[in-house]
Amino acid sequence: MLGMSEIKWIKIKTDIFDDEKMCLIDASPDRDAIIVIWIKLITLAGKLNTKGVLTISKNIVYTDEMLAQTFHRPLNTVRMALEVFEKFGMVEKIDGVIMLPNWEKHQNIDGMEKIKEQNRNRAARHRQKQKLLAQNNESNVTDNVMDNVTVTHGNALDKELDKELDKDIEINNNKVMISSSLSENLKNSGIHLTDKSHQQLLDYVGLDGMSFDMLNRAVEKTSGSHKPSFNYLIAILESWKKKGFTSIEQVDEDDRKYKEGKKSRQQNDKTSEQEVRDEWGF
């Protein structure tokens, strides 16, 4: 993934204040504070370069308090702005993670993906070059010792190449199987996929080591959301990726902890409310 220092800009259209949502915000008493926080929010998302998902690392996500500190704004103001953004669909919270569902409006997604693909290809070529150099060096040393050892070494290399070829074939077969099954699962989910976005999902398995069960779970979560979309699906996967999840068991454990924490917070809120009632005799 591109580092934070490599992303220097975001896109803001000149007619941003003609947008219906921005017009409604501009008509509110707290418009100045809300608009400033929105600009700070999309700028932060651009710096993070995590497809609109506000995460610092795989184990740390931005909270309301952290945003207030980062933006140098009162916590109540930040929370009020986030509530407005959520109401208008400009911001969504998934398992406690804040994300911008329409992030492609503010970032050149195609350009970023092209750069990432170029980096992957460059790294692959570099690894292949190093491998060839190492093989040549080993072959030269062997030639200086004796011919029969060279033959043995060559046979060993052939076997190693055969193993790598078999591994590549196995990976490609699994990829075809996953691709076919994933298409079937997505058919009735309400999520539209292009060939490019379909490949992007497969990369979470091939490049990031996620299990296919995790893709299915992400699709289920997205289908059950208020407004299913590909960006919503990617936000879930990016959240798991940041947390280092590679198995469905880790996802289940994370869900369990989130539900327990939410239940505990609700219980604390009820306790606090009852204490106030008892104190004032309500």
TrEMBL record:
Gene3D superfamilies in UniProt: DnaD domain-like
SUPFAM superfamilies membership: DnaD domain-like
Basic and acidic residues biased stretches: 254-282
UniProt cross-references to InterPro entries, sorted A to Z: DnaB/C_C, DnaD, DnaD-like_sf, Phage_rep_org__N
Transmembrane regions: none
Segments of this protein annotated with the region Disordered: 252-282
Domain Phage replisome organiser N-terminal intervals: 9-127
Domain DnaB/C C-terminal positions: 190-253
Protein family according to the UniProt entry: Belongs to the DnaB/DnaD family.
Protein name per UniProt: Gp19
Organism per entry: Streptococcus pneumoniae (strain Hungary19A-6)
Origin organism lineage: Bacteria, Bacillati, Bacillota, Bacilli, Lactobacillales
